[in-house]
Amino acid sequence: MPEQLTSPARFELEDQDIEIGKSTREARVRWAMVIDHDLAPGVAANAASCMAAAVGERVPGIVGPGGVDASGTNHPGLPWTGCTVLGADAATVHRVRSASLARDGVLVVDMPKKAAQARAYAAYLDVLAESEPADIDYLGVSLVGPRTTIGKLVGRLPLLR
């Protein structure tokens, strides 16, 4: 009888996970990005911001409530988890992404190089549909999930500099 393949459990943010009063080091949920450290600063910033937008859309509740300063000016909410941006070589980015896909409860958002090169989103989707997974180069990967799981995936990678 053939072995049945199963997919890892999807990431779902639960109400009890939202802990805006705790230190980001104490929260049960962690958000980390691993960006190719050889990218030009503008390309790295673009990759991080695109992945952050995708995470924000995919994970309702990850952005905390806005606040008002002493002058009455409103400041929109920010991610209560924080987001650690780490740097690694392209092979490590690819390896972290691959390992993350097999973990339960981890949201994986990636930024393929082909997405940054496309001038129209539909063109990117067309190119992506024709690409074999092993042939896709990544500018970065963004991971959200249980603190200990994310920690094991990103290990001791340094901050992006």
UniProtKB/TrEMBL annotation:
Q: Which organism is it from?
A: Halostreptopolyspora alba
Name of the protein in its database record = DUF2000 domain-containing protein
Q: Which SUPFAM superfamilies match?
A: Peptidyl-tRNA hydrolase II
Q: Which domain of life is it from?
A: Bacteria
Q: Show the InterPro entries listed in the entry.
A: DUF2000 (IPR018988), Pep_tRNA_hydro_II_dom_sf (IPR023476)
